[in-house]
Amino acid sequence: MLEVYLFTLLILIISLIIDLLYGELPTRIHPVVIIGRFIDFFKKIFIKMNNRWSGLFVTLSVIVVCSLILIILLKIASLNDYVNIIFSSIVLSSTFSVKMLLSTANDIKNDLNEDIEKAKQSVSYLVSRNTDELDEKFIISAAIESMTENITDSYIAPIFYFMIISILLIIFRSNNYFIIILIPFIYRISNTLDAMLGYKTDELINIGFVPAKLDDILNFIPSRISSVFVILSAFILRYDGKNAYEITKRDARKCPSPNSGYTMAPTAGALNIQLIKKDTYILGDNTVEINVNHISDAIKLASLSMALFTIFIISLISIFNMMI
Q1: Which pLDDT belongs to residue 216?
Q2: Is the pLDDT of residue 1 over 90?
Q3: Does the predicted TM-score (pTM) go above 0.70?
Q4: Residue 25: left (phi > 0), alpha (psi -120 to 50), or beta?
Q5: What residue ranges do the domains of the chain occupy?
Q6: Dmax (CA) of the chain
């Protein structure tokens, strides 16, 4: 099924180029922003139910409406092969965010070198904890935690689902190209629902239950795959790969989320540092005192992890294409 194979590789490569060169799409046309508007719309309707069914109805409503809009646009784009490739690549690029993930962490490092108050402000946009009283070590920890936690949902997870659908289309010799884009797009809808509603506040505890659980389920396998690539990257970069593995086994389940620890723990182990969220978790051992340069080390780990995963999925898709 050469056509599906080539289409898959083209849109993956082009979408990565778009993200790495240009970053996020303009706000007014960014799919995630549009998804957010639909979430707000349906939230206002269903939150009046004041039970967990409200979260299910919001989730289904947003997924159905946004998916239908995307399918219509993809069908229109498919009338021309070039338009189809470019449009599909743009949509796929909106389901992940490599450049922003890495540059945000690097910006915090630069802020710390310039002014700690500026760094506190920058970190406050990334984490839910109060950053006003954090010292430098806790700011560094928060920056590394945020970046490494998001390795999964900012890249690995959407591309994992992209890979699964691509392989299935090759196996079953299907030309339904739109599904390759639709499934990672649905993942991004779920992730956005969790980001907007998945909190245990008085207002959101009911309506956010289903979005939070769905996001946990969809990230369960990708987060564990992510940990493998973080550990492998630690060995390649000559960090403490063995300790990354040991700390993952010991500490990955310490976080309230069933998934976030699987990328944070191996990072802490690889760098021989502790990542601490007060009154919530401590990951790793304080073998080396955490400092601002560890942000750069964590960026290298995250970058190589995502690069290796990309090579892995391209290789796996290629193998299935040769076998079928």
Answers
A1: 97
A2: no
A3: yes
A4: beta
A5: 2-323
A6: 59
